[in-house]
Amino acid sequence: MTDKISMFHGAGGRESEELVKEIMNILRNVSAWNGSNDDSAYMKLGNNYIVFTTDSFVASPLFFPGGNIGKIAACGTMNDLAVMGATPVGLSLSLVIEEGFPKESLKKIIHSINTTCKSENTPVATGDTKVMEKGKIDKLIINTSGIGIAKKIFNKKIYAKDKIIVSGTIAEHGAAILTERFGYKTNIKSDAKPILKEITAIKEFIKQARDPTRGGIAATLNELAKKNNCGFVIDEEKIPIKKEAKKICEILGLSPYDIASEGRFICIVSEKDAINAEKILQKFNLDAKIIGEVTNTKTVIIKTKFGERILPMPSGNLVPRIC
Amino acid sequence: MTDKISMFHGAGGRESEELVKEIMNILRNVSAWNGSNDDSAYMKLGNNYIVFTTDSFVASPLFFPGGNIGKIAACGTMNDLAVMGATPVGLSLSLVIEEGFPKESLKKIIHSINTTCKSENTPVATGDTKVMEKGKIDKLIINTSGIGIAKKIFNKKIYAKDKIIVSGTIAEHGAAILTERFGYKTNIKSDAKPILKEITAIKEFIKQARDPTRGGIAATLNELAKKNNCGFVIDEEKIPIKKEAKKICEILGLSPYDIASEGRFICIVSEKDAINAEKILQKFNLDAKIIGEVTNTKTVIIKTKFGERILPMPSGNLVPRIC
After folding, report:
1. Is a pLDDT exceeding 90 seen at residue B1?
2. For chain B, what is the mean pLDDT?
């Protein structure tokens, strides 16, 4: 274990997982909250669950094709609630701004947050604003935390043969950030958007769900496998991905399975419900797809044209500051 | 209105107020939440209120006499809930860390958060960790958001002659940060601590309460005056302040009334309850004191040995990055 924090610790892969574990070991405390390893924590409150999540956004650049840091700050936190089965009821918005930051850019970002929140009827309930000296912070960091209410938490036991569905093409958010960062000209746009409506449409079928942000579907599937003490096998040919997003990853030597989406989710449904759930999701997005199934092994396997290989938990620098 | 963000916009005074107003004007949205001008937002949920708040901490230096950024991150958010009448039920903890930051320092900070939370039986429910490249952020930023539950919100109408009580000596947190920043040797320690127990002890008497953090009691009283469309008159001789804290402010040309506390609150109680509330608070802290009363003017007046003067809303750079 190194004695200094590295970029690896923030990339959403294995090193992030280890750091969070170390922090959580200190914070172990008697708690009425569940879900410390999930995207949100939840607690029974009367007949409902109250669901609580937080995310700080350090995306660079702040503006990219298809959105800006404000849009992903609003989507990211609402989506972390949605994948637990909750409907967001309020967000907090905390800004840490670099001295000299243009007010026009700030306003654009706040307008994006407002538009995104309005589309989901989720108000910004409370906020905070801090400023740091020029050169002491890279432009802007946004924290959004969120409260949601759920009748039921998506936390059903999963079994071998249960199916894995992805709600649309993957890796476009990460690819959009990369095209902007490297000055490529492409048609790729960030996929950032709220996913609550899609999730609600197949609520009755979802056993568990996650949004594949930092670390992509590789991190998400490995986390789900660990949590459920199971494995997955997915079929490369079925994974929806746009050619251009794939190409950008190839050029940069990255695996598209390690790259973030900000408007997609992965869910596990029972075998009997899978086709139906896929059909319903395809009304929202034609690319929604069953990509594989649960196994009794403890590894995530990807079947390719050339055979099978392990899809490991991402590790190393991945793409820093993607969200 | 300038077109760039300045340090003034983050100092908790008049310029901060104006920026927040501009942001809130964009975010106006139909909302079930109240309290957008308070320390926390609140919403009816069954027979209770759910209370929600957020704060990002950018304190520099990270360690100072009497505490560190972790302690104020835990206290600050719990105290923002407490001054609304709520009992905290969970915090979120979001870390943004500079690459190369020593893990030992991080662990010390997390231990402080844990100790503070344990003392109040308030768990960290959920978290997030991001890393930024060396030189892109000054060491560490912490966001804590918090959820509390309240039977009643401290939001009673206030009238002329109601009394103002401060729960202990003021400005010590700010003074401690300043001594550390300038390398002074003093006995001043940050006053950072949770205030829930004191507040609970006089719950039945509190009409409204605030914690005088950024901008000190000057900002707090001016905000309360504005919100309630009233004025205050306070008596300088009665304001509890340690000689050393006063001295540090004098040396630096600062008003102690503009300087943050992180473990104090100001509350308004009716005239008939004031002596009783003061007595109860003095069991916790001998320096708790009735310092003045509500008036029908719309200004905050301070009576000094030399006569009366207006205590204005602080403005200008104040002390940056005090919390």
Report:
1. no
2. 95
Count of A-B CB contacts under 8 Å = 271
Contact B110 A5 (CB under 8 A): no
CB B163 within 8 A of CB B293: yes
Class at the top of the CATH hierarchy for domain A31-150: alpha beta
Q: Which of B19, B33, B102 lies nearest to residue A3, judging by beta carbons?
A: B102
B54/A121 touch (CB, cutoff 8 Å), yes or no: no
> What are the domain boundaries of chain A?
31-150, 163-310
Is A10 in Cβ contact with B41 (below 8 Å)?
no
A128 and B320: CB-CB below 8 Å? no
Q: pLDDT at residue B189 above 90?
A: yes
A131·B104 Cβ contact <8 A: no
B293 to chain A, closest Cα gap in Å: 29
* Residue range A266-276, pLDDT digits in tens: 999 999 999 99
Query: What is the identity of the amino acid at A52?
Result: F
Task: Kindly write down the DSSP assignment for every residue of A73-133, as one continuous string.
Answer: HHHHHHHHHHTTTPEEEEEEEEEEEETT-BHHHHHHHHHHHHHHHHHTT--EEEEEEEEE-
Chain B residues in contact with A56 by the CB 8 A cut-off are 94-96, 128, 130, 141, 143
Per the CB < 8 A criterion, the answer to whether B190 and B268 are in contact is: no
In angstroms, rounded to a whole number, what is the distance separating the alpha carbons of residues B192 and B172?
A: 9
Banded model confidence at residue A317, pLDDT cuts 50, 70, 90: low
- The pLDDT of residue A226 is 96
To the nearest whole number, what is the mean pLDDT of chain A? 95
* Band (A30; pLDDT cuts 50, 70, 90): confident
Pairing of β B231-235 and β A87-98 = unpaired
By C-alpha distance, the chain A residue nearest B97 is A5
Extract the tokens encoding B89. Answer: 């039920």
**What pTM did the predictor assign?**
0.96
Q: Which of A54, A110, A116 to mutate to test the interface with B (most CBs of B within 10 A)?
A: A54
The CATH code belonging to domain B163-310 is 3.90.650.10
Give me the amino acid identity at B285: N
Closest alpha carbon to A21 in A223, A216, A300, A292: A223
Question: Most A CBs within 10 Å: which of B14, B30, B132, as the mutation test of the A interface?
Answer: B132
